[in-house]
Amino acid sequence: TMAEDLEHILSQLSQPDNAVIQQATAQLKQAFKDPAIVLALCTVVIGSTNPEIRQSASVMLRLRVKNHWKKMNPNDKERFSLLFYKMFLVLFLRHFVQHSLSQLCAVIVKHETPDCWPALMQFLTGSTKSSNPHDRQVGLLLLSKVLESNPEPFKPHYTQLLQLFSSVLQDHNNPTALYYCILTLTTMTPYMGTEELVRHCHRKSIHCIRIDDQACEAMEVFIELFESEVSIIVPHIAEIVDFCLEVGAKLLALCFDSLRVKTLSSLAFLIKLKSKTVLKQKLVSRILQAVFPLLVAEPPPGEQDPEDQDDNDYNMENNNPKNCAAQIIDTMALHMPPEKLFQHIMPLTQKCLASENPYQKKGGLICLAVLAEGCADHIRTKMLSSVLLPVCQSLSDSNEVVRSAGLFALGQLSEHLQPDVSQYCADLMPMLLNYLSSLSQAKISHVTKAFYALENFMENLGKIIDPYLPTLMETMLSALNNSENLKIKELSVSAIGAIANAAMELMVPYFSPVIISLKGFLTSETEEMRPLQTQSLDTLSVLARTIGKDVFSPLASECVQLGLNLTDTIDDPDLRRCTYSLYSAVSTVNPDCLTPHLTAITTIMLLALKSNEGITYPHDDVRQAAFGAMGQFCRAQHQAWKDSPTEANHQALLKLLEVVIPCFVENVRKDHERQVVMGILETMNSVIKSCKEAVFINPAHLKEVSHVIRDVLKKKTVCQDGSCDESDGEEQQAEYDAMLLEFAGEGIPLVAAAVPADNFAPFLNDLLPLIMSKAKSSCTVAERSFSVGTISEILQALATVSGGRQVAGRLSTRLLPVLVAGVKDSDAEVRNNSVFGLGCLAEAAGPIVKSDYPTMLSVFSNMLTKESDLRVIDNLCAALCRMILSNFESVLPALVARLPLKADMEENKTVYSCLTMLYNKSPQLVLHNIIHPGFFCQSLIFLCLELMQSFSDLLSQFLMFYTLFSQQHEADFHATLTSLSEEQQAKIGAAISAS
């Protein structure tokens, strides 16, 4: 009777009358209080003739059991179990009802292990081995769901299940059963070892996966395999690659785009994890030959590729086979050595660029664009002009598809090839400005790419932007004031932010008209204006940070009030993000204006921290952010101890470090994602830099940190592809992987500066050969620069710790040849780092290496006759200063002849510390070597103004020497000062008074 009543109530839920639905809902609530509801619902599922009612009953049943299973008495549980199997095997049940029931069973399995529910295993065994195809199908469905719910308790049964799957995977006549079998294998994979049977099953799944239209979901088996059981798939990588290419790139007419996208994405993931295996098995050419036709494919007649359509909402990362082809090449660029990739990819690319077919040209340009990030150093140093030339030529192509691709490529090159790409400013800026002036504003996707290219190119120009600023701002302000299209306005506002980042105070003449335009957007409350409003807030924040305190400060209070008004009236997460950025920017200009509003601002921010809006469960960036937060906790606690040096604060810091440092070390070794590991290493470095010796009070931490750095440098961590051992003799590596080594190497000088040199010396002896090996002429410029730079910073650190002189002296015979060779390098950055290193060696080892000074001076003398790079010359001056500080004063004439520094202003600290020391010791020695004191006074005054503006932290060191020298040459200083503006004179006077 209860089952009949329930069926009647459930039927009323689908009636159009709201009153009937409300009455039925109330009756259901009352019925749910009766424990017998579970058995009644089971009866409805079995006996009803209406599939929708069965489905509703099964959903209700799951909700009831989920919340009350533990409260049910054993007899009712037993009766439910019997009814459950009867429900599940009813032949006329629709698939969606069976699916709901399998989810119900999965809920129960979370509460009851298979051992506590023996009938479940009996049912699964009987149904999956049944000769009836329907029984096998529903049994495998149920098995896939219960294992997905709670796979761990089923581990004792895995061997038995694998034997079952071995036969199921050969049954090509039951594709649905195959699908559930593969899903179950996907769930089991992280919990299995490397049994031969597992290999067998997965090899079979490769051949079966495309039979069913549910293959997209079944493809997840590869993702699980790649992440969890890499050793299983290594022998079969060629077979997997061929399969992915067949489905994703060759069977174009036979496969849905969704399946091709899933397959190609799986291939990209495989390349990411096992790039060296793909290289060693000579699969690169095979992959490129298959994906290039996708990259250059023409759309059907009368249609366009999505990125060429005039669709404001189009995302360049939307998944389609063409974009997947580009993603595969992008992944190769990030994870393979450029030299090895380019020998295969450049012939294909050049053939496309030389074609008259616009889609061939487009494919070639897209290829150059996606190579830019992963192969940046290779392109910058070896082929920048040859890559830029076809991109520039494409901007004047007669076909809009080609021009659009060229703009995208230029944006990518501008973003990733800094600072070298800036040297082409005179060629590219007029072209971009002319391009913007002639754009048809109707083609939004095209305009978007033009602004993308412009922004990325401008961002790092600095004051080089000055000649182009009037035209740029005229174009942007015209778009803001005259265009009817909101997207054009949004792009123009964003570009103004990029211009401000480059131009800094040069933007002052344009500040008022920009603010007038932005105010109209900032106060809007309409939904259609929201993107423009948020972009205006972002640009306002940029202006606050760049335009100068004097100019922006009058607006600071108004900006704070604007932010508060917006968050009070508009509920939009992106807008709140922008207001937080605005508050942060204003705090750098006029912090006092925030004080009255701190309670309101911090309340909003705390609510944001507690909110789970937009949050989903673990992602790479979430892990990385979590490690970053751990580092911030350590730095904050260290600062608290410094501010209040109590024992309680000290112990709290040590307790925190005891947890955090081992966590960092373990996850550097075990995390699969390179970017996460880079983030951990960067955070660990920042903790060591801030907390210094506190990190190593526990001596085990020194060993753990040193060994994990060694493991990264030896490429022995999980995120590094271990298929290529050092014994392979391969010195070239992907630039993306080289970044990982750099993050690890940056930790060595930080550790060296935090502990006594003798404690670190045994570990340093193990690490140095790994660093020095990257200085070979066969290594890339980035590797050579990293090597000599790291060596230099290690020597600089040794100069600051106890026992450092002796350790530096012992190392000098090994390091001097490396640094001297680096001074002769063809690349200016390598020479710069090597000169810096020689100076650091002289300072750290002191008298121990005085016998090597003639060698160093000979090298420096040879450099001075031919060196043209200003940064290298400045570092040479600093190296001479370090020799002087080590009581080698005979090099003073060579030093002062090249002062003041021209490019590397950071080294002024070294230079003027040295001159101050000498001047205090022997004024005449300094004066005798400064042949033109009037010119030198002039240089010092202008340098003082420069330091006040850009390097205030160096000012105090400089002013010591400035004051002493000005007293001896008062007339020369007075003559120079009177030639300055009143404002400049006032600034210098205030700086001298403050010192």
From TrEMBL:
SUPFAM superfamilies registered for this protein in UniProt: ARM repeat
GO terms in the biological process aspect are: protein import into nucleus
Output the Gene Ontology cellular-component terms: cytoplasm
HEAT repeat start and end residues? 815-853
Q: Give the InterPro entries listed for this entry.
A: ARM-like, ARM-type_fold, HEAT_type_2, IMB1_TNPO1-like_TPR, Importin-beta_N, Importin_beta, TPR_IPO4/5
Gene3D superfamilies associated with the record: Leucine-rich Repeat Variant
Compartment list? Cytoplasm; Nucleus
Alphabetically list the UniProt keywords: Cytoplasm, Nucleus, Protein transport, Repeat, Transport
The answer to whether keyword Endoplasmic reticulum applies is no
**Keyword Nucleus listed:** yes
**Start and end of every Importin N-terminal domain?**
24-90
A Gene Ontology molecular function term for this protein is: small GTPase binding
- The domain of life is Eukaryota
Q: What is this protein called?
A: Importin 4
- In its UniProt entry, the species of origin is given as Takifugu rubripes (Japanese pufferfish)
Q: What is the lineage of its organism?
A: Eukaryota, Metazoa, Chordata, Craniata, Vertebrata
This protein's encoding gene: ipo4
